[in-house]
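Predicting holo structure, FE2/S2 (inorganic) cluster bound.
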Amino acid sequence: MSAPTADRKATGVFSPSRAQIQQRTLRTDRWWMPTLWTDLGFATFIIYATVRAFWGSAYYVPEYHYLTPFYSPCVSASCVEGARHFGTWLPEFPRWIPLAIISLPFLLAFRLTCYYYRKAYYRSVWQSPPACAVAEPHSAYSGETRFPLIMQNVHRYFFFVACIISIINTYDAIIAFQSPSGFGFGLGNVILVANVILLWIYTLSCHSCRHVVGGRLKHFSKHPVRYWMWTQVSKINERHMMWAWITLGTLILTDFYVMLVASGTISDLRFVG
Ligand code: FES
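Done. Tokens:
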């Protein structure tokens, strides 16, 4: 039995078995570049999303029913009248509470516990390890066997909540095909629909979804429908990292466009109505 395995059985902690070299790494390439880009990408999204979540205005365009995903579902009495697509369940909020308080924590938790994002921030933020063949600064490694990282295992439940929120975003996108004279659509609809399609692809490419549709089966041949679903999910699952980054970008783009139109900075480019 190897030493790390024996250590883990006894303590739940892996002892590092490093090459006995003085240098932190023998790599001469720019191994830190992916880490740097990951940090910059996360920082951009977190700063933007935090500012907008607490902004409290310019989130809804009443003429065309555009509602930014950062404020959906808007179910507080503080939400502007038309933005309450699902009614008013909650009282008025103080200014410092985000209007999408019932969905934002779950969306955040879904992304935070996502298998891809874990890999990204374990490397870029916790440096555990920062790259292949680069020593990490920590003296021991316990993986996800202890609190708080053992909580990552609840990701499978956040997947179901994310599906519900994607349904809500889909409804928001469909109801936005309106104009003051009836049916209509413009560039805002194109952006809202593209965003929701990409959100669905990201959500359904989740590793938990792959397990839900095809896991725990002994014989695929006896479950042709689930096998077909599993193969489809597997195809988009191969690019899960790509969908994770694309949807961060489309969320910012969608919110930014709605903010510009809602604040009167630009007019929506209308095709019909
Ligand atoms: S693994 Fe990334 S969303 Fe589930």
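The longest strand covers residues 270-272.
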